[in-house]
Amino acid sequence: MNDVWAMDFMSDRLFDEQPFRILTIVDCFTREALVTAARTKFRAYQVIDELDRLARIRGKPRSIRVDNGPEFSGRLLDQWAYLNKVELDFSRPGKPTDNAYIEAFNSRLRQECLNASWFLSMDDARNRINAWRADYNETRPHSSLGNLTPSGFAAQLNETRKVA
């Protein structure tokens, strides 16, 4: 079981001003960007679908850090967390430092991908955002991870767990 994930939403627009949202989920220990899902609208059940998909792949976290936005304060997420024995850790209003890992990740995503791109369609946005996420996870070393990439650190961690 993983420790803690952080989850948030971002917004951007296509070239024709059509807005879209991006659900971002980061593993707070490995710093891996687990999800960057872009949609024109996010419903609560779609957030749950992403969490279920991710939990099947990686296992369930002990807790998920979220802000107090309406996307995360609904009954569906609360029910999912209760049924899966996952604690929802809400940040204090006006205190983005309570969820620093996701805020730092979202800042990089905004600066390096969203602000640098002109998205022609939702498919174009999804492809570019996911390509950026793959680059972030697989080719960028983090000093906080001993200059390993997030994916490299996670792989090393999994090998250590197998030996232990």
From TrEMBL:
Record-annotated Integrase catalytic domain positions: 1-158
Molecular function GO labels: nucleic acid binding
Highest taxon in the source lineage: Bacteria
UniProt cross-references to Pfam families, sorted A to Z: rve_3 (PF13683)
InterPro entries: Integrase_cat-core, RNaseH-like_sf, RNaseH_sf
Cited PROSITE patterns: INTEGRASE (PS50994)
Protein name: Integrase core domain-containing protein
Native organism: Lutimaribacter pacificus
